[in-house]
Amino acid sequence: MIQLSKVLNAFVDENLQQLRTQGLYNEIDSVEGPNGPIITIRGQQLINLSSNNYLGLATNDTLKEVAKKAIDKYGVGAGAVRTINGTLDLHVKLEEKLAEFKGTKAAISYQSGFNCNMAAISAVMDKNDAILSDQLNHASIIDGCRLSKAKIIAYNHSDMNDLREKAKAAKESGLYNKIMVITDGVFSMDGDIAKLPEIVEIAKEFDLITYVDDAHGSGVTGKGKGTVKHFGLQNEIDFQIGTLSKAIGVVGGYVAGKQNVIDWLKVRSRPFLFSTALPPADVAAITEAVQMIMDSTELHDRLWENGDYLKAGLQKLGFNIGHSETPITPCIIGDETLTQQFSKRLIEEGVYAKSIVFPTVPKGTGRVRNMPTAAHTKEMLDDALAIYEKVGKELDIIK
Ligand SMILES: *Cc1c(COP(=O)(O)O)cnc(C)c1O
């Protein structure tokens, strides 16, 4: 007989039930095939406006070939953690390439972007330190900060006066050995870009360590080279974090920075020391993907063209698309229930764009978030806009 803890059963059942009655239980759809511009779910073909596959690299033929060759030469697993003997020459090559890409002396790769934030923050910050963190920072940043046990001081989203005041107060309190400021490079719910020049200025004034997680920026901003390069600040940011799973199209994450910082992460960051290295096929494909982004802005240019096209189309139809500065295109509906109904109808009509509601975004700002990619054709975007028009009118969101 299966012997489960009664306490656990009661806890799980009660909470699941609550989520279901509140309509907050997320049923996960599975995609039957590649996560390209058109996806199949339950046999239905849908225009995909929900992936982070910005440049279409997740399904790129050259990268598939490179990955297959790496499997033939190296096998499917790295075999160990990086610090024992899981460091393949492929990892070394990848890290050299990432440093070149980010304009830093060195870089270190991790198994995911999430892992980078678990790894890097707690390797340098501890209970005698403080972290100034943008209120809208990604969940993995929040968890990484918590793990470090440093005092977390949230500042209002991209509010530079608030950041300056809190930095000044933290510095003058004399309570902390080190103070760090952490921000997303691009905020994924609204598509706005962090005010890095001001952040760097404040950091200089109050001697702050600077940490930018540019998961949604690499491949997208700075002609593909990211938000830090967009502002030309690669010599002024201590930690540049990126993911290899969004625009790069594969999986993994990295930290780029000064040689001594990266050397320290190699001896102190726990996911590097205690979790197996990225597999060879992925590492080979990532290295090639980064090279492709450095060699040509063709995919980047197409991504922005598609983003601008979708934005203009939605705006012309009368939708509120917020103030995105990147291809991320929110369509802000407001009311949570209406937002969910809107997204459901879009999917029924053939557009896969997910609703994002409280608590992921503030109450009353429910939205359907659109992620156009370089792989979409104008025809697909026109079809999506026609469906937006139909459903928008049907639900009285536009006239
Ligand atoms: C997506 C994201 C991550 C997580 O990256 P993964 O590689 O998917 O683990 C981390 N930080 C930010 C800001 C992100 O947007």
Automatic annotation (TrEMBL):
<keyword id="KW-0012">Acyltransferase</keyword>
<dbReference type="InterPro" id="IPR050087">
    <property type="entry name" value="AON_synthase_class-II"/>
</dbReference>
<comment type="similarity">
    <text>Belongs to the class-II pyridoxal-phosphate-dependent aminotransferase family.</text>
</comment>
<comment type="subunit">
    <text>Homodimer.</text>
</comment>
<dbReference type="InterPro" id="IPR004839">
    <property type="entry name" value="Aminotransferase_I/II_large"/>
</dbReference>
<dbReference type="InterPro" id="IPR010962">
    <property type="entry name" value="AONS_Archaea/Firmicutes"/>
</dbReference>
<dbReference type="InterPro" id="IPR001917">
    <property type="entry name" value="Aminotrans_II_pyridoxalP_BS"/>
</dbReference>
<keyword id="KW-0663">Pyridoxal phosphate</keyword>
<dbReference type="InterPro" id="IPR015422">
    <property type="entry name" value="PyrdxlP-dep_Trfase_small"/>
</dbReference>
<protein>
    <submittedName>
        <fullName>Glycine C-acetyltransferase</fullName>
        <ecNumber>2.3.1.29</ecNumber>
    </submittedName>
</protein>
<keyword id="KW-0808">Transferase</keyword>
<dbReference type="GO" id="GO:0008890">
    <property type="term" value="F:glycine C-acetyltransferase activity"/>
</dbReference>
<dbReference type="InterPro" id="IPR015424">
    <property type="entry name" value="PyrdxlP-dep_Trfase"/>
</dbReference>
<dbReference type="InterPro" id="IPR015421">
    <property type="entry name" value="PyrdxlP-dep_Trfase_major"/>
</dbReference>
<feature type="domain" description="Aminotransferase class I/classII large">
    <location>
        <begin position="45"/>
        <end position="385"/>
    </location>
</feature>
<dbReference type="Pfam" id="PF00155">
    <property type="entry name" value="Aminotran_1_2"/>
</dbReference>
